[in-house]
Structures are given as structure tokens and as C-alpha cells.
Specification:
By secondary structure, this protein is of the alpha+beta class. The protein contains 5 helices and 12 strands. The protein folds into 2 domains: 35 residues; 183 residues, no CATH class.
Length: 225
């Protein structure tokens, strides 16, 4: 058999294995969410997309889809779980546009006493200290998708877990989020989360796509519900 044909067959085999792994992984997550009381709610995807854009400051030109939507009653209302598929678009130095597809699981819910948690819309990017490779990847995500002003992060024991913070206006994170809440948010990094959005009475936690421990994620989120 020709080498080129062998290489092509190898590519198809790898693609098939990857597709099967992704399917099995998705079914595993579905079963674990069902065990935790989540039910499908795909009909709510359009309204959830609107809420997600409003909360995250997503640019209207950015392609966005929320798929595999599920929900369960919790706290003040519903706790939603879905997969975010987005395509941030940016302009290259030659005037052309470049886009990068991203996909990750996320949770959305109403928070108790939002005035005690934040005093304005804020987005935090978090990772455990020392995650050099992940921090480099996250820096690229921030560069692609974040156009809001940066917030100055303080120098507290937990600050190393906060890679970056953004709000509607430039300033200090301390001006928008109490220190005790910051410390609690920073702990999200140890539970597989890498982006947190706060605002409009809601909170959204985005998880790393390779983080599979749904039970660990939900145990942490229970502190906010």
C-alpha cells in the first residue's frame, strides 16, 4: 500500500477514535448531570444566549451558540449547565480577520444578595498558581475575547490565582468586589473553573473543557446558591 494512502488511513482512524472518545465523554457528563437532578432545556437556549451575551459583554459580531442545555431548581431559581461554542473574531495586522473556535462547559444562575458580592459587572480569569502552560493559553483567550478595561488586582495571598480582571470601566478590583468574595472566587480555580462573570444579579462560571469532575464543580457552586 502506498505511504500516502497509509497516512490518510491513519488520519481517518485518529479522527474516528477522537469522535468516539468525545461521544463517550459527552454521554458520561450527561449521566452525571442527570444523577445530580439536571433535565434538558434546549428550548431555552435562545434566551440563555441573550443572558450570556449581556453578562459576559460578548461583542454582537462574535458568533455564539449554547448547546446541550440542562437545568435544575436551585437557590433563587434555576442552575443552568450548557456548552458554550463561540468564535471570537479579531483583525490581523494586515487588515484581514482571524477567528478561533472555542468550546467549553459553563454554569449560569441567579445569586443571593448580589449587592453584597459585587458593585458592578466584572469578569475574572482564574487558574491555579504555577500553571504556566494554561496561563499562556488563557492569555490568548483573553486577547481574543476581552475588549473591556482591565482592573488592577491586589496583592493578597489568593491573588496569584487571579490571572486578570475586567470591568466596564478601568479601576481596581477592590472597588467592585469585596476581598472576602475575591478569595472565594479565587478558589474556583482549584475546582476546574477558569472564567467567572458577575453582573445583573447573575453569576456564570466557565469550566476548562478537559475538567471532567462535575461533582467537584457542583460542590463548589453550592456555596453560591
Amino acid at each position: 500500500m502506498e505511504p500516502g494512502v497509509l497516512a490518510l488511513l491513519g488520519i481517518f482512524a485518529l479522527a474516528a477514535v477522537s469522535a468516539l472518545w468525545n461521544f463517550a465523554y459527552g454521554r458520561s457528563i450527561e449521566r452525571r448531570l442527570a444523577k445530580q437532578g439536571f433535565e434538558r432545556c434546549d428550548a431555552e437556549a435562545p434566551s440563555l444566549e441573550g443572558a450570556w451575551r449581556a453578562l459576559t459583554g460578548s461583542d454582537a459580531s462574535q458568533e455564539l451558540r449554547l448547546v446541550h442545555c440542562r437545568r435544575r431548581a436551585s437557590g433563587r431559581g434555576m442552575l443552568y449547565h450548557f456548552t458554550v461554542r463561540e468564535r471570537p473574531v479579531r483583525e490581523r495586522s494586515n487588515g484581514e480577520t482571524a477567528s478561533t473556535d472555542t468550546s467549553y462547559p459553563a454554569y449560569l444562575f441567579d445569586v443571593r444578595n448580589p449587592d453584597s458580592l459585587y458593585r458592578g459587572a466584572v469578569t475574572l480569569h482564574v487558574l491555579p498558581p504555577g500553571s504556566k502552560v494554561l496561563r499562556k493559553v488563557l492569555a490568548g483567550v483573553i486577547d481574543l475575547g476581552e475588549s473591556r478595561p482591565s482592573l488592577e488586582v491586589g496583592t493578597y495571598p489568593w491573588s496569584a490565582s487571579i490571572v486578570a480582571a475586567h470591568g466596564n470601566t478601568a479601576g481596581k478590583l477592590d472597588d467592585l468586589v469585596p476581598q472576602a468574595v475575591q478569595e472565594k472566587l479565587a478558589r474556583a480555580a482549584a475546582h476546574g473553573f477558569f472564567i467567572i462573570h458577575l453582573g445583573k444579579g447573575k453569576a456564570a462560571f466557565a469550566a476548562l473543557s478537559n475538567h471532567r469532575d462535575v461533582d467537584l464543580q457542583l460542590a463548589y457552586l453550592a456555596e453560591w446558591l
